[in-house]
Amino acid sequence: MHHQPLATVLAAANTTSSHPGPAYFVFWALIIAAVIGAPVYVVRLVRNRRQRR
Questions:
Q1: How far is residue 12's CA from residue 29's CA, in Å, rounded to a whole number?
Q2: pLDDT tens, 17-41?
Q3: From the centroid of its chain, how far is CA 43?
Q4: What transmembrane ranges does the database entry give (predicted)?
Q5: How far is CA 40 from CA 7, 33, 51, in A?
Q6: What is the SS3 assignment for 12-42?
Q7: C-alpha angle with apex 31: 2 to 24, nearest 5 degrees?
């Protein structure tokens, strides 16, 4: 399983300057969205399965 897009984002986010580039903020925005979105998705799946029964 290859993680080329993730590796590319990590390489772009790894800057040596004091001000990180836009890829750094995009990377963290994706992580935050996944952390918030995953539980919401799971809760919706559980609710849908309960309503079907």
A1: 15
A2: 677 788 899 999 999 999 999 999 9
A3: 18
A4: 23-43
A5: 27, 11, 17
A6: HHCCCCCCCCHHHHHHHHHHHHHHHHHHHHH
A7: 85
Of 40, 11, 39, 49, the C-alpha closest to 27 is 11
How far apart CA 4 and CA 19 sit, in angstroms, is 24
Backbone φ and ψ of 21, nearest 5°? -80, 180
What are the residues whose beta carbons fall under 8 Å from the beta carbon of 27, sequence distance 6 or more?
Answer: 9, 10, 13
23-43 burial: b if 16+ Cβ within 10 Å, else e: bbeebeeeeeeeeeeeeeeee
